[in-house]
Amino acid sequence: MLRVIIVDDDPIIIRRLKKLLEETNEVVVVNEYQTGQEYINSINKKPHDFAVLDIDLPDLNGIELAKKIHEFRPDFPIIFLTGHVDYALESYEVEATDYLLKPIDPSRIHIALEKVKKRLDVTDTTLSRIESWLLGPGKIAIKVEANLLFLEMDQIVCIKKDGRMTSILTIENHQNKVKENIYTTRESMKDIHQRLDQNLFIRTHNSYIVNIKWIYEVIPFASETYKLKLKHTDEYALLNRPKLSELIQQVK
Predict the structure, then answer these.
(1) What percent of the chain stands above pLDDT 70?
(2) Exposed, middle or buried, 116 (CB in 10 Å: 0-12/13-18/19+)?
(3) What do you get for the CA distance between the two ends of the chain, in Å?
(4) Which member of 60, 69, 115, 166 has the greatest number of CB atoms within 10 A?
(5) How many C-beta atoms surround the C-beta of residue 66 within 10 A?
(6) What whole-number distance in Å separates Cα of residue 102 and Cα of residue 176?
(7) Which of 127, 122, 111 has the alpha carbon at shortest distance from 187?
């Protein structure tokens, strides 16, 4: 499922576009904004795969907004909304993925989405090449938004299924200061687990993968479940009773 944010100063257009996008069953609208500045201020708060931007925004021209986005996310797919063909031509200056003319033609939605998916596939291929060049021993590459993040496996405390997303908790100890980070990715628990050191990580529960080095206490929690307390954090993980013997064997 693709995630999108819509930026348009007309609530009627937003409602119409949201309906058309979600009727494809390929897209979920995660947020809506009526100004470019609102979007820029919140761009990292809601993970999303592409954006639909009205070119004629009240505070910030959509073209300028796209340029700001591409400064730190060069390959991020952007679809422009406009009522003027001249603006549509101008959109190609910032390598827009596509544009939609107002009033919106429903048949154009599918075409635009195919272009978004193609753009994302090209980005994935490029990231795979980067991963093969830079990935070293004891590290794992995780795709976060349009970026590739290289994490030290030793610093990964646990991985948690969080709805449709996966959250990764890491702890760094730098100059006797503990820093806790949480990263969110669309990658599945299964895919991530396969790339981890199997001597270091265990799938303790349908919703948790845990680094055994960070476990310091196992507490009965429910009839078939234990709670795993983790070092240097208030976060915890769950352990299914059938996995207890596997955990004991792995920590020996």
Answers:
(1) 90
(2) buried
(3) 42
(4) 166
(5) 22
(6) 57
(7) 127
